[in-house]
Amino acid sequence: MSKEQNKLKGNFGEDLACMYLKNFNYKILDRNFNSSFGEIDIIAIDKDEIVFIEVKTRFQNAFGSPDEAIDLNKKVHLYNSALYYLYSHNISNYSIRFDIIAIQVQNDSHSISHIKNIITDYPNSSLKRRF
Amino acid sequence: MLIGVKSMSLLGINGYLVDVQVDVGNGLPSWDVVGLPDTSVKESKERVRAAIKNSNFNLPSKKIVINLAPAYTKKEGSFFDLPIAVGILFDLGIIKNTFDNYLFIGELSLDGTLNRINGILPMCIEALNLGIENVIIPYENRLEAGVVNSLNIYPAKTLLDVVNHLNNVEQLSSFATDNASLFSNANSYNLDFSEVKGQENVKRALEIAAAGAHNCLLIGSPGSGKTMLSRRLPSILPDLSFDEALEVSKIHSIAGVLPSDKSLITTRPFRSPHHTMSTSALIGGGKVPKPGEISLAHHGLLFLDELPEFNKSALESLRIPLEDRIITISRTSCTLTYPCNFMLIASMNPCPCGYYGSKEKSCSCSQDMIEKYINKISGPLLDRIDIHIEVQQVKYENLNNLSPSESSKDIKKRVDLAREIQRERYKDYNIYSNSELTSNMMDKYCKLDKDSQNIMKSAFEKLGLSARAYGKILKVARTIADLEQCENISSNHIAEAIQYRSLDRKYWR
Question: Using CB atoms and an 8 Å cut-off, which of residues 49-88 of chain A contact chain B?
């Protein structure tokens, strides 16, 4: 599968996730925010909380479920990118949350699972040693 | 909202107040503990997080900062778990009432139950001094904490119980032990002097030692009953007073050796460490110094069986604590002082084969071997032991004698009487026994008449006594006089006291 196809697939998942979030009254602030630390798929506001969302889309189950794909490295990227976003947009004094939206596509149907609050502490290397 | 939660930490044998300040705020989720925490305090975040979650409270992702004030002293231990959890739950609005007059101590397990911790007693005593009224502690520590009667001690089983108590949903019941009943069955020692046949002279010496808290050295051949006699010494020691029991229990609480089914240690400690022990195990040590055997024997007995087998440096380290009755241990992280007012009782053989000087069997050691063996006990250490006594082998007639010898109970009565006299005499000085007399107190209370002075003078010259030995003889004589309930020391008291010092001339030359 080429890079092009991968991107298409990602966009498809992210669109699905945005629709899903809007159903739950999330306000989308930004999509595909890029920084030197990595990319954040969706940035949204849930009530008074800023949520950084990583979307994982899978078309087959062969490589494990989508939410298993977030490892410590990914968390570090997410955390640092979020820090950069807040800094560059001059946002402070908000409650902040990190979520995963995992989308499993099978034939014509898909299922969405939303996992909230995946990072509760700075994901540093000492954590890595422990796991 | 920021709140300070009162908690305690330990420094030596005393607790000190630690203010646990918890701030839950907005920002990227993080959890920081500041105020010089060690690893066990830092790890509290995993326990607290799991305990809050498993108590069915929601812990949102917030920026959490915890400060342990005063921030300049190093904190260690797991007892900050409960105050941290309480602080967070208050900030989140789950605990609705403030708790100014509460102290929280406790370690959390992952499911939210509170675990038993060490050092509760000194912390509760410090809380009383600071005027705190209510203390929440782990349920398993209740017996120990309940001794401090004037505090409201609330033993809690889980974090949920604490929250319900503070929210006035379900009050915890306060707990107090009946301190008078603790001492009712205090002296239930199962060894008795009536089991020892013969050896009347040794029993007499041990009685004097017990009456004045004098250090004692037993020298004798194998099987003569040194260990048997020493092990029965606690049975004639006077009972612990409440203040003494509190001091002893404090040390045992910190060391974590207080039995969980007991509130206080009400019998005098009897410590008999093995001779392979290290110096730091004997006097105390570690990165943050822990009390050693001499401190655990505070107000009790330290029994060193087979004295020459002990590590030389361990024995020599006893010199200063034997005199000062406190031990100051210095490490880079801190310098701590522990009390160690113990009575030393030691036993040894006179030579490697054990029969030097025996009337029954001849010694097979060369003079060289004997000297090498005996010189493992240095002069300065020997000098600090008030009573030296030779234990001869028991004669057959004595062994076969069925008439019972004097029981510990009867001996203890005399000892108690002598101690009562001493306590009355020294009530203004904050000491308990003759062995603690200082030199100017000796001038006042150990006056000698003409006869006694003459005996003392000739003994001093003949035996080549040191100034310290002179003082020790006076103290022992004072105890003998107290046992006979005499106001003044007379010549026969002095003579007996000198006799307990003359033995070292026989072996140490």
Answer: 79, 82-83, 86
